[in-house]
Amino acid sequence: MSNSRPCRNYTWGVYLFFVLFTSSLAVSALATEARAGGSDKYPKCFIGTYLVEEGSGTKSIWSLGSRGIILITSSAQPSLNFSDAQGAWIRTGKLEASATSLDFSFDGEGNLLNVAKVKAGIRFAGKDCREIEGEFTVLFYEPGVDPLDPDSVPENVVSDTFTGRRVTVEQ
Question: Is residue 104 part of a domain?
Fold first, then answer.
């Protein structure tokens, strides 16, 4: 007579428990971050969309995301033939941030003309950071040059200032 107990197959049960447990931890972490709406690097006050006017008169829309993503759309895009800009931002002071974004410029036939790197210094003001101001520099690189390499030399550089106001929900 054998003294062994029958073996049960716990493989699927353990696997299912592991999947559900880790999924619930991930959902909980994301929900906590969403409720917090920011961090030391990406303060809640800075996060939002701003209607921006450059010193040149060009208008643009800047969106600063909660995880350090910046998206920019400019009113000059159709006339100057360039794309939306996408990049990153981070807090650099109590009410200051730096951003770097990239966009593409095209010739009249749709061929890549250059890659522009926009470096901006942003200062926040007003109640709940509803206003911004600052300076930006656009560095233009030929298509074969890496704009993310600090040793790369731009073919042209343009600078300007800007001011802006947060876009809010009208109620």
Answer: yes
